[in-house]
Structure prediction request, 122 residues.
Amino acid sequence: MANATQIIPFSASVQGLPIKVAATATPGTLIHTGLTSATMVDRYTLSLFNSDSVDRAVTIEFGGVLAPDQNIVVTVPARSGLTNVLWGQPLLGSGAAALSTRVFAAVANKITVSGWIMRVTP
Prediction:
C-alpha cells in the first residue's frame, strides 16, 4: 500500500507567508504544531531570512525545548536571501501530546521563517 503525502504550510503561518520571530529566548515563536498520530510523519523544509545588517544566531527548537537534544543553532547571514536549515527532516507524531517546533533569535523581529510540511500518511 502506498503512502499519501500532502504539502501544507506551517500551522503558525498565515496563508503560507513567512513567520516573524519575536522571541529572543525559550520557548521560541511557534512555527508548527505537529501531529498526535503516531503513524503520521511531518517532514519539515525550513529556511530563515535575516533582514538585519549583521549576522544573527537563531535557535530552532525542533520538537521540544531541551538543549542541546532538540535544538538546532545556526548563524544566519545578514540580508543574504534564504538560508536553508531543514530539508525534509522528519518528526513523527507522538501518539499523545503534539510536538511543536519553535524558533528564537538573538534579537526580535529581524528573522523570518519560511517553509512547508510534507505530511506523510500511511
The CA atoms of residues 27 and 65 lie 7 Å apart. The beta strands are 4-8, 19-20, 29-33, 41-50, 56-62, 71-76, 83-92, 100-105, 111-121. The two ends are 8 Å apart (CA to CA).
